[in-house]
Amino acid sequence: MTEPKTKCGFVALIGEPNAGKSTLMNKMVGAKVSIVTHKVQTTRARIRGIAMAPNTQIVFVDTPGLFRTRRKLDKAMVAAAWTGAADADVVVLLVEAHRGITKGVEMILDGLQTRIGGKQKIALAINKIDKVKSEVLLELTESLNEKFPFEQTFMISAEKGFGVKGLEQYLCDVLPEGPYLYPEDQIADVPMRMLAAEVTREKLMLRLHQELPYALTVETEHWNERKDGSVRIDQVIYVAREGHKGITVGPKGEGIKTVSMMARKELAEMMGREVHLFLQVKVRPNWENEQERYTEMGLDFKDTK
Length: 305
Prior knowledge:
By secondary structure, the protein is α/β, with parallel strands linked by helices.
């Protein structure tokens, strides 16, 4: 008996902010490798999650949401998304069923025509199907396929798992034959220190709600393995203004204590060991103009031009 041939390839998930890309990748990987909040534009770098299916390794590229750019950070995020799509074997466009064909979706459809080389297979996944009636779904599917020749269309709910298996099977069918690129037990190819910073940033966004704009970033400054098997992680939260520091820390330091507790708990569960997490908030007015900050986020500073 000959061993079945293995398949491996890259799948870029693209769409508007909050379309459900991170949720879908986490669902298919079977673990949380990209941050998920109710806020838009939470994913900044192209985080790769690795899913194993029968004889197939699917390497997901969870790209930042595509939107009209204003700030330098926005430009770098959108450039990262299009680069991730252009480099992939398969591109999956996620569209929210209840929002339909927005101006943002129209912009992405134009980009698929002009910014993708044409060698990739491009599929459509209409997400959050539980929010609309079947006739609305049918009409939306027809309209989108008239605007772009998608290889396949899938109706899914990334959060609840509806239709996700069908999409996974399609990816297994179309990805190229080849050896696995990562060990079978590896779920992400971002450094753990970057993943840890993303976890803390997620907790900050959940905690602060509307109080703080997106002008903050988190970096893991030190990572020390201890002899007892635990790890000490020192992170810096950079904010743009002095007033933002007070909001982040909270009255009597309660805000930052809560964030630290939530992040430490999730990191301990993720790594299966004790975590000692220490957070420090620093005001850095021009952090969005510093190349080092972009490198730490996995973004290319030259894309801000």
